[in-house]
Amino acid sequence: MNIVFEDASSKGSYLRCALVGPSGSGKTWTALTIASQFGVPFVIDTERSSALKYAKHFKFKHANIPGDFNPRNYIAACHAAIAAGAKVLVVDSLSHAWEGVGGVLEFVDNVAKRQKTANSFQAWREGTPLQNELVDGLLALKCHLVCTMRSKMEYAQQSDGGKTRVVKLGMGAIQRNGIEYEFDVVLEMDLEHDCTVGKTRFPELSGQVFRKPDEKFSKKLFDIVGGADPNPVAFTSPQTNGKYENSSKSDLEMRYEEICKEAATYGIETTPFVIMGNEKSIKEEGARLRVQILSSEYLQLCDLAIAQSVPYRELLSDDDKTAPRLRKMITDLREELGIEGEQVISEKA
């Protein structure tokens, strides 16, 4: 391994900014103000097209995530924007990926129901990787990123000129705990449209409060980050929904797509899933689908065995769900049933 050290420079680095606040605090407006400093924003809208209300004030590209806020749909939308030439991306809002329809919390609830257990601890074994997939996917984007998140609401009494009034306070982002640590700068918005720098990797911003952040603030942020981005790398890995085509797919990517097609023949759903462009992720996802295909093949043969009164069936535990184990089980069962012909399980993963 050849390791080369170079002079450190922030030039060409990508912004990772989060805006957190209650409804009406100006998150979308501020996100567009910041993003516009870095180029023409591409906006991924989960707020029922609310960003379009600002179309006469800002120039930007717009797309909705309609209805299903599964984190994989977020990443698919992000890479569609990259493929379309986005240099700066606004995700408005990231909270739906956590508590919206199809979000991580609903995903975990559905897993728990499928497992027929009231204890969601085991379900989080599937939910946590999905959340990590979202975070890793966002951080890996080759563009500037501005995300908005709703805040959990609490109320407090404040004295105002001798009178007591109830005010609405934003207390932490509606997302998984610790999400703020993934961003370079977190701006906490209030209902006066002011923002406090809650967390930052930029010493120039630490602890500051900005009154109605405008283009001047955005330019300061632009200069701190290091200016315009370098030549962004276009996304080349496949989507399983077939809507994204790329002629420069690697052999590994094409084999992965074949696995997805085979999974569909067994009724195994492959939601629009974007691999993050590294071989390890592609191999791991391909292996996961391959195990599901093998499991389906094995269970079909078990049903056939039971119908023919052949006493052969093993329950699949977590330890059993490996491709070599399932291949042997399938082979043994075929021999017992006297099933001949070409082996349908091919080595693709």
Description:
The structure is a single chain. The protein is 36% helix and 17% strand. The protein is α/β, with parallel strands linked by helices and 349 residues long. It has 2 domains: 16-225, P-loop containing nucleotide triphosphate hydrolases (Rossmann fold, 3-Layer(aba) Sandwich), CATH 3.40.50; 251-337, no CATH class. Strands 1, 2, 3, 4, 5, 6, 7, 8 and 9 form a 9-stranded mixed sheet that branches.
List keywords for this structure.
349 residues, Rossmann fold, alpha/beta, 2 domains, nine-stranded mixed sheet
Summarize the structure.
The chain is an alpha/beta fold.
Q: Indicate the structural class.
A: alpha/beta
- Tell the overall outline: elongated
Radius of gyration: 25 Å
**Helical residue percent?**
25-40%
What fold name goes in the CATH topology slot of the largest domain?
A: Rossmann fold
- The end-to-end distance, rounded to whole angstroms, is 27 Å
Let me know the average pLDDT.
79
β-sheet strand percentage? 15-25%
Q: Uncertain runs with pLDDT below 50, 5 residues or more? A: 228-247, 272-276, 342-349
- Count of discrete domains: 2
- The topology string of helices and strands comes to EHEEHEHHHEEEEEHHHH
Give me the CATH architecture of the largest domain, please. Answer: 3-Layer(aba) Sandwich
Main sheet record: 9 strands, mixed
Briefly, what CATH class of the largest domain?
Alpha Beta
CATH H-level superfamily title of the largest domain: P-loop containing nucleotide triphosphate hydrolases
* Count of β-strands: 9
Task: Please give the count of helices.
Answer: 9
